[in-house]
Amino acid sequence: MNIKNWLDKKIEPVKIHYEDENAVQIISKQLVSLLPKQNRPIVFICIGTDRSTGDSLGPLVGTLLEEKQLSSFHVLGTLDDPVHAVNLQEKLHKVHSTFDNPFIIGIDACLGRLKSIGCIQIDLGPVKPGAGVQKDLPPVGDAHLTGIVNVSGFMEFFVLQNTRLNLVMKMAKIISRGILEASYLYPVKKSFYPLELKERQQLP
Q1: What does the radius of gyration of the chain's CA atoms come to, in whole angstroms?
Q2: Burial letters for 107-117: b for 16+ Cβ neighbours within 10 Å, e otherwise?
Q3: Tens digit of pLDDT per residue, the chain (204 long)?
Q4: Are β-strands 73-76 and 119-124 bridged in parallel, bridged antiparallel, or unpaired?
Q5: What whole-number distance in Å separates Cα of residue 62 and Cα of residue 137?
Q6: CA angle (22, 104, 74) in 5-degree steps
Q7: 116 near 148, Cβ under 8 Å?
Q8: Domains of the chain
């Protein structure tokens, strides 16, 4: 993962509460500002599992995006086919073998301070899934979007299991709407095809 190409942008990280009336617009504009100007496919990897309410933010976002059938972005990780601790390495390998030099944005739930619950964070650099529950998993993404779903510091696994689904669902809807709006602002490029499609097009 090479972040140096984007350091010159001097983009400040964004942290916005999902109830902010401008949350969708702020998320979309921040995402577009992070995306590369080069001809690269954009892949969102939504990490998590529906077996834990707090950890279901990623798959919920992925499912909501899948229903929209985005033309500008590719999405992995849904309630039906989640990306989680067991298959994360395999899914990352699939992305890199399918897409030509993808720009990956990792989406995941996280824990934080009590006053930050409900906040959505967007910045350059990878997300580190499993860090809150002491799991050693590979970092994901050239950029990341995380949602603070509950408080950290004590029995994190139990806290994630007992997070309110209502909060997670509301955050997922705001995040997916922000990504959808970003897809309208970001131009679709013909080279944003998987490698297998490119090869197929070159066949006689």
Answers
A1: 16
A2: bbbbbbeeeeb
A3: 444 444 445 678 899 999 999 999 999 999 999 999 878 999 999 999 999 999 999 999 999 999 998 888 999 999 999 999 889 999 999 999 999 999 999 999 999 999 999 999 999 999 988 655 556 788 999 999 999 999 987 778 788 888 999 999 999 999 999 999 999 988 755 444 444 444 433 333
A4: unpaired
A5: 20
A6: 80
A7: yes
A8: 12-197 (3.40.50.1450)
